Amino acid sequence: MMLARISVLKFVACVSTSLALAVVVGCSDDTGLAKRYPVRGTVKYNGKPVEHGRIDFIPAKAGEGRAAAGDITNGSYSLTTATKDDGALPGSYKVTVSAMDIDMSSTKGSAGGGQAARQSKEFAKVQKDAKMLIPQKYGNVESSGLTYDVKEQSNQIDIDLKD
Question: How many domains does the chain have?
């Protein structure tokens, strides 16, 4: 009877240890980064959703943290630090938003020597001719005036840009 009780205790201990290891292993990822927290939100300009663009969260203090970014689609975004939509590390961030319409049809170029140079010149012209959908100041970390904190929780950060 005593032998059966010890075997049952060993079995329970093994199962408990295995479950604990599975939980620990299941909660981590292979990026080597600390836990990131979901960051989602909306971006509006003068009350209207920004159709498409990019949002960047840059650590407020240089050398602390890691940047996170996301694409803006139909006014909504979700941040990525290392893996798609994994969020951001907790902390304070300076934020930039850029949104423009670019016509890339003229950058296809023709095959042959010097194509890379022609495409580079074409690309520079396309960028120069791009239609800005929001004021350019929001695309620069020094002039955007946007700062937000990512907390150790799921974060909803809605941004309403103005002229």
Answer: 2
Radius of gyration of the chain (CA): 24
Residues 79, 87: Cα–Cα separation, whole Å: 5
| Cβ 59 vs Cβ 66: under 8 Å | yes
Residues spanned by the domain of 59: 31-106+116-161
Nearest to 37 by CA among 57, 19, 17, 62: 57
Does residue 148 sit in the same domain as residue 101? yes
Global confidence as pTM: 0.72
Half-sphere exposure of 65 (CA within 13 A, CB side): 21
pLDDT tens-digit series, residues 105-144 = 766 654 445 566 556 777 777 777 789 999 999 999 999 9
Q: Which residue has the higher pLDDT, 36 or 62?
A: 36
Instruction: Answer yes or no: is pLDDT of 158 > 90.
Output: yes
Q: Is there a single domain that holds both residue 61 and residue 6?
A: no
- Do 76 and 131 sit in the same domain of this protein? yes
How far apart are alpha carbons 136 and 112 in whole angstroms? 36
CA-to-CA distance for 74 and 50, rounded, in angstroms? Answer: 6
Q: Is 147 part of a structural domain of the chain? A: yes
Judgement on whether residues 15 and 82 belong to the same structural domain of the protein: no
